[in-house]
Amino acid sequence: xxxxxxPHTDHAVHAxxxxxxxxxxxxxxLILAALADRPSTxxxxxxxxxxxxxxxxxxxxxxxxTGDADVLTVTPAEGLHNATIDCGLAGTVMRFLxxxxxxxxxxxxxxxxxxxxxxPLATVLNAVRQLGVEIEGDSLPFVVHGTGSLRGGxxxxxxxxxxxxxxxxxxSAARFDEGVTVRHEGAPLPSLPHIAxxxxxxxxxxxxxxxxxxxxxxxxxxxxxxxxxxxxxxVEPDLSxxxxxxxxxxxxxxxxxxxxxxxxxxxxxxxxxxxxxRMGAETRRFDGQLTVRGPDQLAGIDIDLHDVGELTPxxxxLAALADxxxxxxGIAHLxxxxxxxLAALSTEINRLGGNVSETEDGLHIEPTALRGGEWHxxxxxxxxxxxxxxxxxxxxxxxxxxxxxxxTLPNFVDLWDAMxxxxxxxxxxxxxxxx
Length: 435
Fold this sequence. Notes:
Layout: E1 3-5, E2 14-18, H1 23-34, E3 40-43, H2 49-60, E4 64-66, E5 71-75, E6 81-86, H3 91-102, E7 105-111, H4 122-130, E8 134-136, E9 142-147, E10 153-157, H5 164-171, E11 180-184, H6 192-204, E12 209-210, E13 220-223, E14 233-234, H7 239-252, E15 255-259, H8 272-278, E16 282-286, E17 289-293, E18 302-304, H9 312-320, E19 326-329, H10 341-351, E20 355-358, E21 363-366, E22 373-375, H11 381-393, E23 397-400, H12 412-419, E24 424-426, H13 427-433
Parallel strand pairs: 2-15, 2-24, 3-14, 6-7, 10-11, 18-19, 22-23
Antiparallel strand pairs: 1-23, 3-5, 4-5, 7-9, 8-9, 11-13, 12-13, 15-17, 16-17, 19-21, 20-21
Helix pairs in contact: 1-2, 1-3, 1-6, 3-5, 4-5, 5-6, 7-11, 9-11
């Protein structure tokens, strides 16, 4: 495996970085468009490994998807059919598509990367079984025996391992004979903003959805059967992918501007603004741009990241460079992500001389003087970018398999290098070329 020398700088980073679209929004839009009543367009679509896997999967089942770069036209199939689907390591593919595959005529076989076999899937697969479909297997590889329809109705699941289990059932439920009523029973649900995103997009497509009124209300979602209307989707920039660039300003005492930052959004990445302020940075959103100015020294933070667990690698890197201890809480579910992110972060930061310990539901980080060394990515894009953040302040860090960042952010290395040239970095064109 190759190692990438993470760039180090003694200077404050000053740059403007324009980022490509949100992976979460793009893949939800692709599914809704594939099941809609007429063709749709998606503008600003992310083109990355995860989204290209979703495109390939929907095409394999009969959906026509055309277009270059970030503008796509999606024409629904008259009837979905048998297919073989490569999930890679994409949770949105392996967890969102089994209910869609149940609507196909014929068998739909799913496989993925070796590491993907460890990702929990039984929750969504058993739910689809409860709704009337035969499935072979409880993890990758598995086969959905589609019959062209799905009965639907009530289903009870424990989705405490991932909000994707709920979203995966809701996205295609309007096409089920009886719709669906999903009841969560178990520990508190993680990443609720992602479910809110799913509900918002369903409603935008004319689907009737009833959702819980608050996190403390009974966790039940109901989708009524009916058509999914075509929408010309406009995809927001990926705010979670913005966090390493904002962190670059925070750890170097510099300034970073991200254009097209939405004023209202369901993306979990928007919470980075609050986190950075609590750690001593300044943030300002004006005229559609977010600007972050880093402090002379970052402060530690005690924070519950339960709803925004995807930000944990970035926050852990910031905490390792702070001047006081940090406690990251509410993120036990990260043990079931692309890798066990809690174990990976503690192992890799400690490998560089850090002092990180795992708690029952998170990490305790005591800042220490870090040194250079190898940083393993575990085929996890957010682990790789966390290592790049540390490399800005710690010379000699070498990151294993930096190419794994292509999962959600193509050409990350070029963007990172261009950022350090103190210029304006346009990611959209580079991302489109990766398709």
